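Why Universal stress protein? Reviewers of the renewal asked for a concrete example.
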Amino acid sequence: MVQSVVVGVDGSAASEAAARWAAEQAHRTGRSLRMIHAGVPEARPAEQPADRAESLPEPLRALRDRLASALPESAVSCEQVPGDPAYALVAAGERAGLLVLGSRGLGGFAGLLVGSVGLRAAAHAACPVVLVRAGADGEGGEDGEVVVGVEGGRPCDEVLAFAFEQAAGRGVRLRALQSSPPPAGPYDTEAPLDQREIRDSLAASELVRLQDALGRWRDKFPAVPVEAEVTAAPAARALTEASRSASLVVVGRRLRHTRVAAPMLGPVTHAVLHHAHSPVAVVPHV
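Here is what the prediction returned.
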């Protein structure tokens, strides 16, 4: 069975940008494209699936037809699903293994870059969730590097696997970025020379550990050029700045086996989602 790339659509500019991103992903990976308009009223018992397909809003039918014409070798579908949008989209994405969403839909407030559905999906889905913003101002485009944020001392296989696969599919460089801020103190201006040397030595050690962590992934993806970088800048700031030249930024989210309603995105992931200049993939990991 050929897997699909699932994308939520609602007629907004952000969801159209997400659909185009998902279509490119489907084309690269040989998957079908499944567009879902979630949150519609429950269908009447007598209503047939074909009738529901034809009842799609005109902008969604037009988008489906445009993408189907652009991807003649891929199956492209669009369907309406009742119920809570975040729940319906997460359920569909988890079955397919990937969910793509616009960062803000029609119901969002103008000042928010990420809407409630996107935040809930990114916080709770057990599959990678990619959030795409309409009018993103990064310069990387589809040919930009893939940037992955790595936690110091604890690189996550799920996050690195997704990042390497994306870089390999695009034929671009992977940039592994780790933040290692120096201990509090006047290291840059007033610290004695030996303290600055200690700081530089610690950064060098972190870089060696990062290179080691990337070693087996380099072996698995030998065609992917890899740059490892340890920066003293805070992680959210470093990843946001790196997103300017990226086609995708990949960050992790720890899986928690609870059913609380509040999103469980870490502060770095939350900040990157709101401020990145490129699409952002949130990859759950144990």
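The longest strand covers residues 32-40. This is the kind of structural detail the renewal will allow us to pursue systematically.
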